[in-house]
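User: For documentation purposes, I need each entry recorded in a consistent format: the amino acid sequence on its own, followed directly by the corresponding structure tokens. There are two entries in this batch. Please keep commentary to a minimum and don't merge the entries.

Assistant: Recorded as requested. Entry 1:
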Amino acid sequence: MFLVTGVIGLVAFITGPRIWPAGPDVPMPPANLLPGYIALSAIEALAFGFAVAFAIFGWPAIRGLSLGAPWLNKLLFITLCWFMGNWWMHDNLHMHNGFNMHGLLFIEIAFHMTMLACGVTLTIGLVRLAKRATAVSAT
């Protein structure tokens, strides 16, 4: 997983600005803030790499959870992949979109609403796991 995370993260970091070039109205950050933006971009690219690695190697662990519903295991797996992997796309789209308010609304809806749905999925999964753990410890 470490190797896949690193390779995909590096590729994502390099290609992000090429896939989504900055909009013409996006200002260049001041020199003292540029390292922070670069670090944030690198971390998000690595998170995307981790999401890809998890998508490749993580299913057996999630499939084995006793959540009481196979559909919830699948939804939890997708949720975890999206939860870690969306930030790279999200921030690059913000830079590409610039100050276009119409585009910004679509970005916010697409990413923030799906993240809210991910939160609900994680909550349902955790509650089911907690109930099962409590039932097992009570026996």
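Entry 2:
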Amino acid sequence: MALKSENTLRERSCATRVVVRRRAVLWLLAFAFGLLACACPLAAAPQPVSIPLKLSPDVIQMSTFYNGAPIRMEGTAPGGSKIMIVLRGVEKDELFNKKGRVGPIWVNTDKVHVTGTPSLFLRFSSEDVHTFLSHEMIDAYALDEASIKKRMQIRTSKGQPDPQYWEILANSYLDLKKSDGNYRRVADRVHVTEGADGLTHYTLAFNWPKTAPPGSYQIEVYACRDGAIVGHGGAVLRLVEVGFPAFMVNLAHTHPYGYGLLAVLMAVIAGFGIDAIASRLRGGRRRVSGERVPVPEPEQVRAASARHGGH
């Protein structure tokens, strides 16, 4: 009986080892298949190639009479590509005053901080972006206002707003940016031609918005085909203040009291100048208003009255 029990234990031990080995092999196979499943999509997905982007000019000077500037972009991409060009400003912490009515007057009722959004967002494409890119791809690259809105962070002086209030503030912020011309999407604006070299040639010309503040702006060009981004390029555009605007900005930062005094002095001079011009214009209008009717002198009036009385 002892020998039989010992043999039974040995058989069970061998069977257990076999089961453990089989499970180990299965786990290794499952792990290997998992790695292959993860690696295959990456290998199959086309990696975007670098495409050229020529920018002219790459520096815009903002002088006293600055009113925007014409800008041109051009380059080449893989053949058969749809082209999309996106211009973004840096992310800034923007502060707004929320107005509210208290009785008969309007006052500031809250302060709203908005972060996580570009100061400028312009998107130009050769055709409607939704025809050659999926919503998931657009959201991943933040290529429209809806995807920018998802990244937006809003806080007020009273803390985090509730979802309904947050939605109102977010929509108001986007509407403000659109009305200023700093958020814009234009389809069918990028001109595309297929060259004999097998490449897609693209050009874009437009007027830079005058409301864009000084700073650096990132320009990105995307070449899209078969629902994927097959090419990508970029450049940097700089807006710099020159002349009198640059002098005033430097004075405000280095000598704030001098800047305030100069601003008051200029306001006084402008006020007196406008008053003098208005007075001169009023005087000129009186002189050219027409021929004046002569007014008789008192002696002539008395003589005429005597003659009429005598008759």
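Summary note for entry 2:
Residues 1-6, 36-44 have pLDDT under 50 and may be disordered.
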